[in-house]
Write a structure and sequence with these properties.
32% of the residues lie in helices and 19% in strands. With 1222 residues, the protein is α+β, with helices and mostly antiparallel strands. It has an eight-stranded mixed beta sheet with strand order 6-9-4-3-12-13-15-14. Residues 1175-1217 form the MYND-type domain.
Length: 1222
């Protein structure tokens, strides 16, 4: 009901395997925190298995409870079978068979027999929930409800009864379905390039070849395979649910394929070159199988750590039922399990009755459901299930590009201005507000370059938090003026239903926009659920705001169908407890007379909302079978109630195929309709049952003349495909209200035992909108540009409570403000030592603020504009936000890493392509590249210095390049300093150990020891520093602003690599009264807590080439860190484009990221201490081709081997060069 009901005949596909690389589900949680994960649209098992691999790197085994939900029962059945197979295969001897069973469309006889034996075991222990949970797998593999168990039991039974005779019928059917749809085709697939990042370009040639091979043979076995694989694998069959195997199914897409191409050290984890078995396999296949084996082994060893729960049904309904579990004592279900599923959703497992199963979570992963449901539907359903911890994270993922080139992506995602909508929702999209991602855009740019400007795919992941942590201060809800709030909600309404606006349709005629509005996400029920959600997260006179909103909607003339949906909107707003008094009622005497006219409503007592069910004959649906699947698409359906002069439309409808059964006496309130589902759906013979809720008054007002119609929603695609086959309303079937053969009016919806009722009152988030701090109360208000849905600024009001403060303010005490973080401003009142803090929901700009002082009324107001994440000099200390908590710091935008389990790049190997620098150089946005290039090319002083973020990224490029690049012009060294020449010189030492592949982010990470220098540390390691200076040392020059950015980021870098626990009871400096992290920005003071000091694996630093005593002294005072490149967010800024792919793996284009890499490998502000008299950049003793070194023509002192080295060093050298010549 939250999204339109579609005709799903054309694209009824079975999705057994995922199409994006595996993600670690616990990566956003501190290692000690027990994980409660909700995986919606879970798909295959890759994320759970990869999570087990990541967790296996940790010494302590925290409990991990994962609830997995998928609409397709065969997906859940496959996953439970796989996990149980892994658990039963205690010594891993059946690993090859397990791979084949899960990934191959055809099996050898031995694997097929193993599958059937195991499926038989599962069916024998799954006759009831109690039996399953007491069985051999029940302690680890739990089932949420009896309907789910019955559904997967039936699937397992189909495996047991599968035919072992060779057949390729279903395999060929999948190919034919794609040809009929006319899509991209089964012959070309390059999306595996996404899985091979950061070496995506290498997979562009190999992936399509292997994809074709898989769809020719049905296996990943190479040509040398000995076993005969001709038995169809029932695990890939969707026939029992009338599903066709998806044409893009590819076993390799869920793995991290870069290890097949990049040089790894001999002892590296997941090095496919060190595996003896698998000879004859393609390197990509070998890589995927090795990872699968490692993941399975980790899950097997850590199985006691895991509780896996499974649910079959629609994700958003599941979320709403979980949420109701928290607020309603009545277990009677009023939600359907999913589209075309007529059974109610009841979580009847004992785990939910006893409270053992979680109903709130600290991680919610939504896969790419945002592409299917829309962001507002998804956020409204999931956000209430996040627990109250600061670590709680909601993850959304998208694979579909829906925004136009000139439209901000975040605005398109949220159906309005990103700042206004994220503030309204009370959610904080981290990558957007930090303008930072750990994922490069290179692979997406590469894939788009193959689509001739018609890119439909764009992979992106966002993490959402409930709010910015405020320490011990309870943040307040945002205050809104009711008129402004109504206007914002109204504009959101218009955007949600812009497909009904003719002016928008005419203005945006791109193929992408036509496709978008032809598959709408929202119904009026969606909007009502959104309003209910907002109601609990804002502070305003809600009744007044709702009244103003309804008035705007009633008078709206922009949406051509807006007036038709007013009755549905009122019904849904009433049921979602948005406001009361929306459903009109007849006076009793009028109602009695009208009931006599409407025979189906001659009840003794009439509710104000009833259910109408329409029985649509199968003959009326034949046209959908007669239309070509390429033309059919997935048109949305709606119902109308209409007379000759009036019409009301309803899109929140439920569909089901099946046979009917009645209880109670017809034409009474006890009459009920039961539907037995026909699993054949559109391919069966049963009628289609369409049910929806209507105000009773509609039926009573026009009982004699009212008709009911099922129709297609008039989208551009539906009109183009069906206008010639249907009437001008796109009607499919209509009958009069008094047609008792096809129209059924009931108190309850089919198969539901309770009448539609108002949801429990919404639970307000946090407090009453006022936060009490010491002697003050705080109120935050959103202010809007007049008549718009854009926030102009925010007002923070400090209301003085104490008599002393009121007296001081009234007597003229000075008031000052200080911005202490992107979202917090402290207010200083006179000489008071305690400063009230204004915690704003989003980053703000104090430099453009205004202060109002009401000395008589005893309050202070600070009016601040919202900062734009794309603005110049945007908060460089807000790249990796980190917040102190009692249990330990909480990092945002810095996922925890199983560092020791990550593959290690062999930096000593010769590189055929500059993959590392191309990857690193995509860190800058298109805007940043222009600024960077202008600065690097400038030989004269400029008043517009580098943005600190650009400089920070440049320093990262310098460090990675000098450690990992064997370019002849770059001195390779593991030793780096962060040096601010104008403020004491060296402040931080970074001693690199290895470059590892960050598998989850498809990037690289520098595994390093970090020493933020203090006077005590310098004295302690003085002999080691002397030894260090005997070796090449790369000095990364930074200014004060960049040094602060590094100090802000280092704690998060340490957290990412953490294998140790923070001290408790005040033993850790972070929880010993620290108000913020880092501990200090001051020169010579501690930046990090001491808990992780000296904690390194044995042999760490052996490759540094230092004396053993020096290496030991350095690691004794160092902390292990994971230093990663950072990239601008594609949700904020335009990303770089890669050069057009030439088809030659060894080619490297000269534009885009490649051009930047070639031009700036040396980085900005870096010099390498080389043997005296050498080139200032690379240390060479003579020029290229021989001859004496060149000298700088201005200062005549610094030497270079080539003009290229001089250009690389110019940004760093020009300040000193100018000083030397003045």
């Amino acid at each position: 009901m939250f999204y339109p009901a579609y005709v799903d005949l054309a694209a009824a596909f079975f999705y057994p395997l995922g199409n994006t690389p595996a993600a670690c589900l616990t990566q956003h949680l501190p290692p000690e925190l027990p994980a409660r994960v909700l995986a919606l649209g879970c798909g295959d098992a890759r994320n759970v298995l990869f999570t087990a691999y990541c967790e296996a790197a940790r010494a302590d085994a925290r409990p991990i409870d994962i609830t997995s939900c998928d609409l397709q029962r065969a997906v859940i059945a496959r996953n439970i079978l796989l996990f149980s197979l892994i658990l039963d295969d205690r010594d891993g001897r059946n690993q090859h068979a397990v791979w084949s069973i899960y990934y191959h469309q055809f099996l050898d006889s031995a694997s097929f027999e193993l599958l059937q034996r195991h499926a038989k075991t599962l069916t024998e222990t799954s006759s009831s929930l109690d039996e399953w949970h007491r069985g051999p797998h029940g302690s680890c593999l739990r089932v949420c409800d009896s309907a789910t168990l019955a559904a997967v039991h039936e699937v397992w039974l189909s495996y047991v009864n599968a035919d072992a005779r060779p057949s390729r019928a279903e395999f060929e059917r999948a190919k034919q379905a794609q040809e009929a749809i006319g899509g991209a085709g089964i012959n070309v697939s390059i999306t595996a390039a996404r899985s091979a990042a950061p070496s995506a370009v290498d997979a562009v040639l190999d992936a399509p070849r292997l994809f074709k091979q898989y769809w020719r043979s049905g296996t990943t076995d190479g040509p040398g395979a000995t076993a005969k694989t001709d038995v169809p694998n029932p695990m890939f069959s969707g026939q029992m649910d009338n599903l066709t195997l998806h044409y893009g199914t590819d076993p390799l897409l869920g793995f991290h394929l870069a290890t097949a191409y990049l040089p790894l050290t001999h002892a590296s984890p997941l090095n496919p070159n060190q595996v003896q078995h698998g000879l004859g396999l393609d390197p990509l296949v070998k890589t995927a199988r090795l990872q699968f084996e490692a993941w399975c082994d980790a899950f097997r060893r850590r199985s006691r750590q895991f509780t896996l729960r499974f649910f079959v049904g629609e994700a958003m309904t599941f979320c709403h039922v979980l949420h109701q579990k928290l607020t309603a004592a009545d277990d009677a279900a009023q939600w359907y399990r999913g589209p075309y599923m007529p059974d109610p959703l009841i979580l009847d497992a004992d785990d939910y009755r006893s409270g053992q199963a979680p109903t709130v979570f600290n991680v919610i992963d939504t896969s790419n459901l945002i592409d299917h449901f829309g962001s507002l539907n998804l956020l409204v359903a999931t956000a209430p299930l996040l627990d109250g911890s600061q670590a709680a994270t909601l993850v959304t993922e998208s694979l579909v590009r829906r925004h136009e080139a000139d439209q901000p992506p975040m605005d398109a995602l949220l159906c309005g201005n990103a700042s206004a909508l994220s503030t309204l929702l009370g959610l904080f999209p981290v990558q957007y507000w930090t303008n930072t991602s750990l994922v490069s855009s290179t692979q997406e740019s590469l894939l788009q370059s193959f689509q001739d400007g018609n890119a439909t795919q764009l992979h992106s992941r966002l993490t959402w938090k409930n709010r910015i942590p405020a320490g011990s201060v309870q943040p307040s809800r945002l205050h809104y003026d009711e008129t402004d709030l109504a206007q914002l909600l109204y504009q959101t309404y218009l955007t949600m239903f812009e497909g009904e606006d003719p002016s928008v349709l005419m203005a945006k005629r791109s193929a992408r926009h036509v496709s978008n509005v032809s598959t709408p996400y929202y119904t009026r029920a969606s909007f009502a659920a959104f309003l209910r959600f907002v109601k609990g997260r804002v502070e305003a006179d809600w009744s007044k705001a709702a009244t103003l909103l309804l008035d705007l909607i009633d008078k709206d003339n922009k949406l051509m169908l807006g007036q038709d949906y007013l009755q549905e909107l009122r019904v849904q707003m009433h049921l979602f407890d948005v406001c009361s008094g929306l459903i009109p009622e007849f006076p009793l005497e009028q109602m009695a007379r009208r009931c006599r006219e409407a025979s189906q409503l001659a009840w003794s007592s009439l509710p104000n909302i009833v259910n109408v069910t329409l029985k649509v004959p199968r003959s009326k649906l034949r046209m959908f079978h007669e239309v070509g699947k390429g033309q059919l698409g997935n048109p949305p359906l709606i119902c109308h109630t209409y007379t000759a002069t009036e019409r009301s439309s309803f899109a929140a409808i439920h569909l089901a195929f099946g046979t009917e059964h009645f209880t109670g006496e017809r034409n009474t309130q006890d009459f009920a309709l039961k539907i037995q589902q026909d699993g054949r759906g559109w391919h069966g013979e049963s009628p289609l049952w369409v049910s929806f809720l209507v105000p009773t008054v509609i039926l009573l007002s026009n009982a004699r003349t009212l008709s009911i119609k099922l129709a297609l929603q008039p989208t551009p695609h539906a009109i183009g495909s069906f206008a010639s086959k249907l009437d001008d309303t796109l009607g499919i079937f209509d009958v009069s209200l008094d047609n008792t053969e096809h129209v059924f009016i009931t108190r309850c919806r089919p198969n539901i035992s309770v009448a539609p009722h108002v949801l429990p009152p919404v639970k307000k988030q946090d407090n009453d909108g006022l936060t009490t701090q010491t002697n003050v109360r705080i109120q935050i208000t959103a202010n809007f540009l007049t008549g718009t849905a854009r926030i102009s600024n925010l007002t923070g009001r400090v209301i003085l409570l104490s008599h002393d403060l009121k007296t001081k303010l009234s007597h003229g005490a000075a008031v000052d403000t200080v911005q202490i973080s992107p979202c917090v401003i402290a207010v200083k009142i006179g000489t008071e030592s305690s400063h009230p803090q204004l915690h704003f929901p989003v980053p703000i700009l104090k430099v453009q603020s205004k202060v109002r002082i009401a000395r008589k009324s005893s309050y202070i107001e600070v009016i601040v504009p919202i900062a734009s994440p794309s603005m110049k000099h945007y908060f460089p200390n807000f790249i990796h936000p980190i917040f102190p908590e009692r249990s330990g710091p909480i990092t945002w935008n810095a996922p925890y890493l199983p560092v020791s389990n990550l593959p290690v790049i062999d930096t000593k190997a010769s590189h055929k392509t500059p993959w590392l620098n191309i990857h690193l150089s995509s860190a800058w946005s298109h805007r940043e590249i222009r600024i960077r290039d202008a600065s690097l090319d400038s030989a004269s002083p400029t008043g517009d210095h580098f943005e600190t973020r650009i400089a920070f990224k440049d320093s990262l490029l310098t460090i990675f390049s000098h450690f990992g690049d064997r370019d002849a012009s770059t001195t390779q060294t593991p030793f780096f300093t962060l040096s601010n020449p104008s403020a004491g010189g060296v402040h931080v030492l970074i001693l690199a150990s290895a470059i590892r592949l960050d598998l989850a982010s498809q990037s690289v990470v520098l595994d390093a020891a970090c020493i933020p220098l203090t006077l005590d540390i310098v004295r302690d390691i003085a002999p080691a520093l002397q030894e260090l200076h005997k070796h090449p040392l790369c000095q990364v020059k930074v200014d004060g602003a960049e040094l602060s950015a590094w100090k802000a980021a280092l704690p998060a870098m340490a957290e990412r690599a953490r294998t140790w626990a923070h001290g408790t009871g005040g033993k850790c400096a972070y929880n010993r009264g620290a108000k913020s992290i880092p501990l200090s920005f001051a020169d010579g003071e501690s930046v990090l807590c001491a808990c992780g000091t000296g904690v390194f694996p044995d042999g760490y630093g052996d490759g540094w080439g230092l004396e053993a005593s020096a290496a030991a002294a350095l690691t004794r005072v160092a902390v292990r860190v994971a230093v990663a490149p950072v990239f601008s967010s594609g949700m904020v800024e335009r990303q770089q484009e890669v050069p057009a792919f030439s088809g030659d793996k060894d080619s490297s284009g000269g534009g885009g990221a490649a051009g930047v890499a070639a031009a700036g490998v040396g980085g900005r502000g870096a010099t390498t201490e080389a043997p005296p008299g050498g080139c200032a950049v690379c240390g060479r003793k003579e020029r290229d081709g021989g001859g004496e070194l060149l000298r700088c023509s201005r200062c005549k002192t610094v030497k270079y081997c080539s003009p290229e080295c001089q250009r690389k060093d110019w940004k760093a050298h020009k300040v000193g060069c100018r000083a030397a010549t003045q």
